[in-house]
Amino acid sequence: MLLVGWDEDAILGPVGRREGGAAGLAYCRRSGAQRQRGAAVLMALVVATLATLIVSGLFWQQFVLLRTIENQQLIVQSAC
User: Fold this and answer.
1) Could you tell me if 1 and 39 lie in one domain?
2) What is the span of the domain harbouring residue 20?
3) Is 1 helix (H, G, I), strand (E, B) or coil?
4) What gap in Å lies between CA 54 and CA 77, rounded to an integer?
5) Alpha helices in 1-80 (DSSP H)
6) Predicted model pTM
7) Cα–Cα distance, 67 to 69 (Å, whole number)
8) Can you name the residues that pair with 17 across neighbouring β-strands?
9) Burial profile 18-57: b = 16 or more Cβ within 10 angstroms, e = fewer
10) How much is the average pLDDT of 29-40?
11) How far apart are CA 8 and CA 10, in angstroms?
């Protein structure tokens, strides 16, 4: 796409050209090491999310258990 009054290379730059010289969006190829780093970051985020969910679930169970025990104690105390 060529805009009237604009230089296409000035707008798109060297990254904005695809192979073959056709104008297009920025196209970048990542190396294998960059992909592995990205995958490692995503995996670390998934593991951290799962760990957070597990720990918060354990805290919630403890909270519910404590409230149940307190309620049972209040019922026993009120019956006397």
Assistant:
1) no
2) 1-30
3) coil
4) 35
5) 8-12, 32-79
6) 0.53
7) 5
8) 23
9) eeeeeeeeeeeeeeeeeeeeeeeeeeeeeeeeeeeeeeee
10) 85
11) 5
Domain shared by 71 and 38, yes or no: yes
The tokens describing 30, both together, are: 């990542």
Same domain, 17 and 39: no
Task: Tell me the residue length of the chain.
Answer: 80
Amino acid at 73: Q
* 38 and 63 part of one domain: yes
Count: domains in the chain: 2
Phi and psi, residue 43, nearest 5°: -65, -40
Please name every residue paired with 23 in a beta bridge, in sequence order, or none if there are none.
17
Residues 46 and 77 in one domain: yes
pLDDT class for 16, splitting at 50, 70, 90? low
Output the six-digit token pair for 20.
Answer: 């073959």
Tell whether 38 and 77 lie within a shared domain: yes
